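Instructor's aside before we start: the two examples that follow are unrelated to each other. I chose them only because their records fit on one page, so don't look for a connection. First example below.
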Amino acid sequence: MNRIISSKNAPKAIGPYSQAIQSDDFLFVSGQLPIDPVTGIMSDDVSLETKQSLENIKAIVLEAGFKLTDIVKCTVYLQNMNDFTAMNMVYENFFGSHHPARVAVEVAKLPKNALVEIDAICHK
């Protein structure tokens, strides 16, 4: 059975999708833009954006009853691959010794002109 996950500690979906869907022991977290859920503001610094996107993922993961160490895969979408090093430093600090599988790709444009968007898959 699938369960829709919604956290008030992450920004509301800006389209016809859920923040996340739990399917049995899996959690599929939709791409998270770096929008502060309290202010609705988004930074224009890739490091701050990366941190906010990850914090949004964390809020959703915890709401679903999962842990950050349950994250098994992330996809990072960058507007500019030249921002990879800055993103990677924040990502590494966020996850510490836990290293989910990851893909990082450059895209032509992201919603709301974000510099980064990150999605995640979790498994218990």
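Example two begins here.
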Amino acid sequence: MIIGITGFICSGKEEISKIFVEKYGFIKKSFGDEVRKEATKRGIELTRDNLQNLGNLLRVEEGKEVWARRIIDSLETGKSYVIEGFRNLNDELPFRELEGFVLIGIHASDEIRMKRFLERKREGDPLTEEDFKRIDATDRGNDQDPDYGQRSEDVYAQRDYEISNEGTLEDLRGEVERVMGEMKS
């Protein structure tokens, strides 16, 4: 089984991935990790803007599905994966060709996501409410090329299942269990 995770910034993509790894034994892969590896190889500072720009640039240079293909090429048959961070339809489409792929969208309100963003202080992230709003708009697809840019809103619309992450970590675990039950039935 291959589970894709999509959602907007600070909706809880990393937390849900951890649950799939810890509770169900999935192997985690991440679009963001792939972009960070490439940035490190090129000596590019790991800021959010630099990573987004590099991700978009490689879609232009190496093909719209470059990030999906890199991840798919690393998958081993017969293993279960959780793939975190789908942000462009060209990330999703190659996975739709794979047997057993489902896309889960994780949702949290703008207020909750902004609070998480300001509290997490991830390296390379700006730290103001205005920055969050700008980054969130870019991630959703505002002023982004549909083929090569960030388009999280488009990907989210393609989800097979939805999980709410507006409560506690225990609530999130319950949501994952609910969706796993739905997938098995």
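The chain has nine helices and five strands.
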